[in-house]
Amino acid sequence: MQVQAALAEVGFPCPEPLTPATRVDGMTVTAETELSGGSPMPTDSGAAPFASLLARLIASAPAATDVPSLTPSPPWAGWDHPGRRLWPDLDEHGNDLNLVDVPRWVDEAAGLVRERLTSTPEPMCIGHGDWEPQNIRWSGSDALVVHDWDSVIAQPEAAIVGTAAAMWPREDGSDPMASVAQTADFITSYQRSAEHAWGTSEVRDAWAASLWVGLTFAKQDAAEGGTEHADRLATEIEERLDLAALR
């Protein structure tokens, strides 16, 4: 809530918290200003508006060292979890993905992603870990409000961008991850909006973080008996590994 309050104070489009978080019957309860209206933006016009808004958020957020710990990251962005196993102990649905059978390449790729991103020397910054269209309302081309502040994360900038690049076109929240072209569009658009061209390592980190999202979705789909996400990702895995320089 401290991050949300700080962003609201500097004019970022998010609800202002009105009460501290309170535990009631095992649930966290808060109150915030109501920001109604607006609608999701269609994603067929490209990633630029979504990437620009994320760049604004990251630039406006307080330093990660100035707020309480934001760990753990949501499982779909949880390559940074502190456990010794490959996947977080439980995902948001209560599943232990370490016990879910998938094609071997899924876990192998996840291991490569985790190894790369946990060794990056880049500093932490604050971002939003659930950058899906249903969490953002627009009035025309202007962002009206960003919701879901339970998903604030503290990670290297490129990792935050990579997670968002995998999620930004998921209009119903259940679609597979962004295509390779859509992921590239977001990563490029973000650098343009932030007015900072990344080095090769940062670009690769973003691709690695985006891949973690897709691999998580594949594991979660398999936990429910599905194969759609893994089947889709299988057609792109070699290209994504190359873009992240993971082989």
- Under CATH, the homologous superfamily reads Aminoglycoside phosphotransferase (APH), C-terminal lobe
| Helical residue percent band | 40-55%
Number of domains: 1
The order of strands across the largest sheet is 1-2
Characterize the main sheet: 2 strands, antiparallel
Shape: globular
Order of helices and strands: HEEHHEEEEHHHHH
CATH C-level class is: Alpha Beta
What's the total number of strands?
Answer: 6
**Low-confidence stretches at least 5 residues in length (pLDDT < 50)?**
none
Q: Approximately how much beta-strand content do the residues carry?
A: 5-15%
Descriptive account of the structure:
The protein is an alpha+beta fold and 247 residues long. It has one domain (47-243): Aminoglycoside 3'-phosphotransferase, Chain: A, domain 2 (Alpha-Beta Complex), CATH 3.90.1200.10. It is built from eight helices and six strands; from the N terminus they run αββααββββααααα. A hairpin with a 2-residue loop joins strand 4 (136-139) and strand 5 (142-146). The longest helix is centred in the last third of the chain and has 24 residues, at 200-223. The chain starts with a helix and ends with a helix. The mean pLDDT is 94.
